[in-house]
Design brief:
By secondary structure, the chain is an alpha+beta fold. It has four helices and four strands; from the N terminus they run H-H-H-H-E-E-E-E. The chain has a single domain, classed as Orthogonal Bundle (Arc Repressor Mutant, subunit A).
């Protein structure tokens, strides 16, 4: 499930991706994230709230959530991520 969530995070716009990574994955406090990104605390909180909302929407769209045989929360991708190599104009699975 962690890999699935990380894939979705990578698709977020940079402004949202950076606050999510610093806050949720790296464990920095909001004030620390603000300092790292050079933002006010209020702007950081707003951006983080918007990023979490966007991430939640993207996860709902891209993933199917369920409990596995160990009763742990898990997910599968509805449609696997397809990347396009723009330099070679081909699809990368």
């Amino acid at each position: 499930m962690n890999g699935c969530i990380r894939e979705i995070i990578e698709t977020l716009p940079e402004a949202y991706r950076s606050v999510i990574v610093l806050s949720e994955l790296e464990g920095f406090k909001d004030s620390e994230v603000a300092n790292i990104l050079g933002l006010s605390l209020e702007a950081t909180k707003i951006r983080l709230r918007r990023a979490r909302t966007r991430l939640k929407e993207e996860l709902k769209t891209a993933c199917i959530f369920y409990r596995d045989e160990r009763n742990e929360f898990a997910c599968d991708r509805k449609n696997p991520v397809v990347q396009i190599d723009e330099t070679k104009s081909k699809i990368i699975p």
